[in-house]
Amino acid sequence: MYHDEKELPSDTLLIDMDDLNQTQIIPSKNMTLIEHQAREKSKLEQQIILLNNSSSTTNKRKNPESNDNK
User: Annotated region Disordered: where (predicted)?
Assistant: First the structure.
């Protein structure tokens, strides 16, 4: 086994152990960074919409109670 990168054949694939241990999914090389960012942005926007919907539903539930108390 080689230990010095200079001694490695030119077609050798070096893998960083940190890369092997990560849990994040890396997009394939066929996907550009812009496409990946657009997908992530879309996912985050969907989550924000869901959070806003759930919080507005909660607020609607609280509002009738406050109106009854008046």
Answer: 51-70
Task: Give the lowest-confidence range in 26-35, 49-58, 61-70.
Answer: 61-70
Place 65 in a pLDDT band, splitting at 50, 70 and 90: low
Residue 37 CA neighbour count, 13 Å, CB half = 3
Distances in whole angstroms, Cα of residue 4 to Cα of each of 7, 8, 11, 16, 36:
5, 7, 15, 14, 34
Domain count, the chain: 1
Q: Who wins on pLDDT, 12 or 63?
A: 12
Any domain includes 16? no
